[in-house]
Structure formats: structure tokens, C-alpha cells
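W.,

You were right to be curious about this one. When I first looked at the sequence I had no strong expectations either way, so I just let the prediction run and decided to look at it fresh. Below is the sequence, 235 residues in total, followed by the output.
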Amino acid sequence: ISLMLQCAYQILRMVGMMSEKYGYGRVSTKEQNTDRQYFAFIELGVPEHNIFIDKQTGREFDRREYQRLLTLLKPSDLLIITSIDRLGRDYKAIQEQWRYITQEKQAHIRVIDMPILDTTNQKEGLLGVFICDLVLQILSYLSESTWENIKTNQRQGIERARQTGKHLGRPKKKRPNGFKNTYVMWKNGEITSTMAMKKLRLKKSTFYRMVKDAERAGMGTADRTNLTSWELTAP
């Protein structure tokens, strides 16, 4: 019986007599939290298995979860997004995807923070479609222009930091106590690099970065009697 019900359900889905709710969310980086979008979908009755979330930039639409979602959308299904910029950040592409979903897929879209962008409520005929398209164009433009402003500000900030000599990125780890003597022993062949890393409790990448920085600072070829000026500055 269960198998028969599943088959009947799939047939009804194919002919458009039963619809599904889907939620699509997106953040730009893996560090960003998606809980707000996830719970917004849950509150609107989207089944957990119908929620798709990408952690990827909005400039491109070849996102894994988004593409999976598109393959599942059927006529009369409802796709819910929290805001238009969660769909994407490209002015032209947002509109193309909107029309692909609503016209080719014949599914509906609802934007939570902009109720006018809800194709299930377009009862005003041509005027309603016109207003919806107009708002979509404005919000798509704002989405891309906001992204461009963010990138411009980032580039300007990085350039200013470089001009003033500020360090960019994470702060460099300080050399541990005993680095100088361990370095010399390693350079003289008294210990292996693995032994040196273990002694200093450093990862391979960190160890070699510190070695490179030290030698740039004037270490040169090391021995116990010729440390020159580097001996005065290195721990």
C-alpha cells in the first residue's frame, strides 16, 4: 500500500495536481550562519527535506544546492526565499532565473521580506505582473550594486592598508622560545626538520614560514658562532 501511495503521489506531482513547498537560502562564506533563513522556512511550513542552502557567492548560479532544487521544481510548486539577494547578486541573472522558474518551470516564488514579490497573489492581471516585474528589476539592481560597493570598499581598504604598511590577514604567530637554537641545530644537520617541528610544537607550514622570515631578516647560513644581527632580534 505504501508503495502504491508513493507512486500515486509521484503521478499527481507530474501532472501538477499536488504541489510542494521549497526553501532556498544562501550565504557567501562557510563561516556565516544560516539559521535565520532555515527557521524562516520552517515557520512557513517548508518540510526540512525541502530546504536547500548554499554557502557560496551570489554572482554565479552554478551552485550545487540551487541546481539540485531546480531539478525538483514542478508546475505549481512554491519556492520561498527570504530576500532577493539570497537568490543572487547579478542583476541580469536574477531576472533570468526568476523567469525560468515562473515561466518555464511554471512554479511560484515568494520573497519573504518583499510581499509584493509573491507570484501566488498576482490576481490583478497584467497590472500585477507589471508591478511585480518593476519591483524585481529595482531589487535586482540594488542587489548587484550593493555587492559592487562592498567589493569596491574592500579593494580601497586593502590598498590603503598596503600604502600605510599595515599587515593584512591573520596576525603572524610569534616564534616560540628556543627557535634560534633549534634552527641552528637543524641547519647544521644535528636534527631533522621533523624533530625541529616537534621540539618547537609547530606545524610544517608554520615552521618553514618562520624559517623563511628569519632568513629574510638576515640569518643567512647559520652556525653557532656566526648569528650576526639576527641573534639580537630572534628568540
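Here's what jumped out at me. The first strand starts at residue 21 and ends at 27. And, maybe more interesting for your project: Confidence is low (pLDDT under 50) at residues 221-235.

Coffee later to discuss?

I.
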